[in-house]
Amino acid sequence: MHRFVVHGITRRRKHPSPWVPCEYIFGHKDLKICKDWFQHLISCINNESGRPKNLMVFVHPLCGKGRGVSNWETVYPLFARAKIKTKVIVTERAGHAYDTLSSLSDIELKAFDGVVAVGGDGLFNEILNGILSSRHKVSYPPTPEGFGYVGSSDNCEEQTRNWVNFSKPTPDSGNAVFLGNPSKCDDQEPLLSTSHPTELEIPSNSTKEPCIGDQDNPVSFPNDWFRLGIIPSGSTDAIVLSTTGERDPVTSALLIILGRKVSLDIAQVVRWKTSPTAEVLPTVRYAASFAGYGFYGEVIRESEKYRWMGPARYDFSGTMVFLKHRSYGAKVAFLDTPYTHSLTASAQDDITGAQPLQSRWKKPRKIICRTNCFVCKEASTSGQNPEDVADNSRTICENQKWVWSEGHFLSVGAAVISCRNERAPDGLVADAHLSDGFLHLLLIRDCPLPLYLWHLTQFTKKGSDPLSFKFVEHHKTQAFTFISSHDESVWNLDGEMFQACEVSVQACRGLVNFFASGPEL
Ligand SMILES: Nc1ncnc2c1ncn2[C@@H]1O[C@H](COP(=O)(O)OP(=O)(O)OP(=O)(O)O)[C@@H](O)[C@H]1O
Q1: How far away, in angstroms, is 243 Cα from ligand 1 center?
Q2: 415 and 290 in contact (C-beta within 8 Å)?
Q3: Do 88 and 115 sit in the same domain of this protein?
Q4: Cα–Cα distance between 91 and 88 in angstroms, integer?
Q5: Residue 119 CA, ligand 1 centroid: distance in Å
Q6: Across 97-111, 185-199, 305-319, which has the greatest mean pLDDT?
Q7: Number of the ligand 1 atom closest to the C-alpha atom of 120
Q8: Cβ distance 115 to 84 under 8 Å?
Q9: pLDDT tens sequence across 484-520
Q10: How far apart are alpha carbons 153 and 145 in whole angstroms?
Q11: How far does Cα 59 stand from its chain's mean position?
Q12: Closest C-alpha residue for ligand 1 atom 28
């Protein structure tokens, strides 16, 4: 008998990883038949255009509990087997991935099918900002009358970059070439292995659709070919949990290898001022999961002092900030469109400081975002091509109405996706969608400490409704602005600190593609 091995993927319900590699051995006494089968499978694999061939991989060696390198070592053989070329860069400092990607020319970027973070949400945020900083051409978010920055609709091309320490990319520390493979079936997907991985140079070329060397054809976002991915290795991994339903490096690696693709909304955050007395200097940042102020910003700022504690510093800082029970005077205006669903405090409530909210309509039934989500599909088919929706604000401006909310807030947050994590199994907003073009604005008004604790503990219980409290405003919106008079106003963008006291934010629908199929819940 002559034999060959087909490497596949299967699911084992009881296995902690829902997707696991497996092997099938085939044999025939006729060598030619074996070779024919083999060639046929190879050509099927090569016909799968969605599978990535070249990836840039950033490994954060210190993320989570220092699992970045070991997680990459675990999944690397899968990429090798699938013959996917990887240019691996182990980060040496914060900002390394951002500097590398923002300084990459479009020609160099086009050599890759995507970029993968082996780390947490923070490393992914750096990658996202590095990729988009010069390639996302769109107007600033719309702002209400009275927000008052002339030029708020100017193009962001001139956006300020203030990431520190530009550095050249480090030499790749582990290039190798590998090969792709086929199948649409979820359960048993072959990963044909034909040879051992061989060392290879960084790809200077790619067979991808965009023309290499075409200076007139710059990389812009959104597009339908470039994808981002995460091998989860961080402290929270909310982006992976919200997009795959799992927090498993092997599952994420297999989704990348198979070339799965889902569109992600991204929040574009424009900071107008760092503090009330600072000069106006618009600076653009992007967030894939969450942008939060007040409690959320303070926890991040506080936790920086206790880095030595590892991931436990978030619990510690969270408790410290919670006990301080500080509220922040602020004005928030959000865009109310015909598609906006809100539980909004009336103006009178704001003035009297009274808590009750008036439900303007009954909250709609929660539709959870899952694989092949029809809400996200509807949103994408009701729009036009990704290129046509690039200028989101133009579309938003029709039928817009701004609603102001003013008072003292314990926190102000905007969830782009559900933000599931181990502490909040349903996430911050259980029914947030990956690519419906909306943000979920959460305004937590000042309230007695025990009530606030009750609200926070609801996040830890599956199936509860932490947003149903009277002091919680939940608005599904496409854009909002925020003004505070505090000198040390800190935002938390995907877990990263961002000092800002005046911001405007908009959801950019399906701005990037992610290697995933949506949460399988
Ligand atoms: N080699 C490095 N040394 C120090 N910081 C780094 C390095 N590489 C990346 N970073 C930064 O570390 C921060 C956290 O990264 P990431 O989110 O991937 O890990 P995490 O463990 O989930 O996060 P955190 O440390 O915030 O809990 C990010 O701001 C990232 O820019």
Answers
A1: 20
A2: yes
A3: yes
A4: 9
A5: 7
A6: 97-111
A7: 18
A8: no
A9: 988 889 999 999 999 999 999 999 999 999 999 998 8
A10: 12
A11: 17
A12: 122
Cβ of 241: how many Cβ atoms within 10 Å? Answer: 25
Work out the pLDDT band at 54, boundaries 50, 70, 90: very high
Angstrom distances, CA of residue 261 to CA of 225, 379, 456, 498, 513:
9, 16, 33, 29, 6
Point out the ligand 1 atom lying closest to the alpha carbon of residue 495: 26
Does residue 94 line the site of ligand 1, with CB under 6 A? yes
| pLDDT tens, position by position, 446-471 | 999 999 999 999 999 999 999 999 99
Q: Is residue 45 part of a domain?
A: no
Strand-pair category, 114-119 with 54-59: parallel
Ligand 1 within 6 A of CB of 126: yes
Q: What is the span of the domain harbouring residue 90?
A: 54-178+198-263
Peptide bond into 222 cis (omega under 30): yes
Check whether residue 105 and residue 168 sit in a common domain: yes
Name 330's bridge partners.
Answer: 407, 484
Residue 28 is assigned to a structural domain of this protein: no
For residue 329, give both structure tokens: 């005077």
Q: Which amino acid is at 446?
A: D
Phi, psi of 349 (to 5 degrees): -60, -40
> Three-state secondary structure along 207-266?
CCCCCCCCCCCCCCCCCCCCEEEEEECCCCCHHHHHHHCCCCHHHHHHHHHCCCCEEEEE
At 390-399, the pLDDT tens digits run 445 445 555 6
The pLDDT assigned to 213 comes to 47
3-state secondary structure of 450: helix
Quote the ligand 1 centre to 208 CA distance (angstroms): 31
pTM of the model: 0.84
- Is residue 97 within 8 Å of 91, Cβ to Cβ? yes
Q: What is the mean pLDDT of the chain?
A: 83
Pairing of strands 401-415, 439-445: antiparallel
The residue whose CA has the least distance to atom 29 of ligand 1 is: 122
Which atom number of ligand 1 is nearest to the Cα of residue 234?
Answer: 22
Domain end marker among 214, 242, 263 = 263
Atom of ligand 1 nearest to the CA of 91: 1
The CATH number covering residue 343 comes to 2.60.200.40
Measure the CA–CA gap between 171 and 460, rounded to whole angstroms: 43
> Which amino acids are annotated catalytic?
121
Ligand 1 and 123: CB distance under 6 A:
yes
Closest-CA residue, ligand 1 atom 12, reads 94
- Cα distances from 45 to residues 42, 53, 113, 198, in angstroms, run 5, 12, 16, 19
* Exposure class string for 446-473: b at 16+ Cβ within 10 A, else e: bbeeeebeebbebbeeeeeebbebebbb
Task: Please tell me the distance from the alpha carbon of residue 103 to that of residue 300, in angstroms, as a whole number.
Answer: 28
Q: How many CB atoms are closer than 10 A to CB 196?
A: 9
The residue among 221, 243, 263 that closes a domain is: 263
Note the ipTM here. Answer: 0.96
| Alpha helices (H) along 344-469 | 347-352, 374-382, 392-397, 449-458
- What total of structural domains would you count in the chain? 2
